[in-house]
Amino acid sequence: MGVKGRRVHVGVVASGDLEVLLEPREDTVSVVTITTRIEGHEATWRSVLERFFARHDKSVRIHINDFGATPGMVGLRLEQAMELCINDNDSHDNGPKTFEPR
Amino acid sequence: MTTTHTTMDQRHLSPGNSFIELRARDRAFSLLDQNRGVELLGPFDRLESRWLEDQGIVAQADDGCVIVLGAVGGKSALIIAIEGAFQGGSIGETSGMKIAHALKLAHMDCEAGTETAAILLLESGGVRLQEANLGLAAIAEIHDAIVTLKQHVPVVAVIAGMTGCFGGMSIAAGLCTHLIMTRQGRLGLNGPEVIEQEAGIQEIDSRNRQIVWRIFGGSQRYEMGFIDTLVDDDIRQINQSIRHILSRPYTAKPLSLCLERYQKRLSRINVPARFDYLPSASE
To answer: ipTM of the assembly?
Structure first.
């Protein structure tokens, strides 16, 4: 289902970390693109994403820039992005934004 | 005494106050009035480096450079924050041009009657070697833009984190009107790793943190008079220092008029004769 919320950016392309860009979509399809230097591990990526979408039945567009993050780290960043996307009342993503340490 | 120290340590260690612990975007917003501002060319504009992918390096959506326009102490201000965690805060074609053009926009604001000061949060090893001349060209544009902008408004540099500020961006820091550092920050033209690589380990052992910080560290830079303000790693203190600078009347004073100050400083230390060519300030 479509999701009400704002687009969210979390994380940084630094050792063991990743950057997640998450945008709500109106229709019933989610689109995920991943850029990573680590070859292989397709099954691991797939299971991390399947677990994420099993928890959140939402339509979003996600882009990941990965710098060798562990599956646990990837899961936490995705959860963080979705949480901010849904819960943040500060909706105008291009407008004034409030600082929250994270 | 013990009690006092414990209290101080707790304050210094409090994660809620640390500026260094914040990522570039949060650092930028933490300095603005009500922590509100507008980000220019943010990650969703996807202005990534064009050159990293071919070299097997994953790019970042904002190229490690965050530009936010807002107010500081009620005055219009532009915050430029470099993300030290991405590629060592190195300046490539994209991140460099973002900085240079943001500074030019601030200058256009000033010319149009809205004084917009610039605050640079520097966390950079210098030019991104993978982008070679394009990065160097961008850094040259940054230098030019700082020199132009500081005719109108203060251009404040903050060097907070352990990455420090080296190479072309240390020259950028030197061109700023005010420099703020933490003890954890480092500032130098050539970084210790580069010196060790070029001149050998007998010149400097870059893994010896004590020696490195004694040469490049914030305390040393402050005692030598190279920077204006030494602060704790504390969001509030950095905010106060910046607001203090912006609240005072600003008169542009080029470094070439500060020769006397630097000559006096040089005369206090044992300087080789080759510095004798410096003209006196009256000339």
So the answer is: 0.83
